[in-house]
Design brief:
about 90 residues, Alpha-Beta Plaits, 4-stranded antiparallel β-sheet
């Protein structure tokens, strides 16, 4: 039986795609006063969301990928940015 394109529920497709995504949250500590410069450099990476925060972590980054192999170079490039002192990555699959 062929599926008629009109019968496809776009909301269902989005949910299926989101379920298969790997979500990584990167917590970043920066040198004092560099958080906004680091934020601008991170925006060049493939990220879904970035927040400058106050507290133990200066920046929180949310990344979504469909393959864990795609995540590694993104995280590595972020860690190389000048001004970043420490990172912690949380991965949900």
């Amino acid at each position: 039986m062929r599926t008629n394109i009109k019968n496809i529920n776009l909301k269902s497709l989005r949910k299926i795609r989101e379920v298969n995504m790997i979500v990584a949250i990167i917590l970043i500590a920066t040198e004092i006063g560099t958080e906004h410069n680091v934020e601008e450099k991170i925006k060049k990476e493939e990220i879904k969301e970035i927040l400058v925060t106050y507290g133990s972590w200066d920046i929180v980054v949310r990344i979504e990928v469909d393959d864990l192999k795609k995540l590694d170079p993104i995280i590595t490039n972020i860690r190389k940015i000048k001004g970043i002192v420490r990172t912690e990555t949380l991965i949900s699959a």
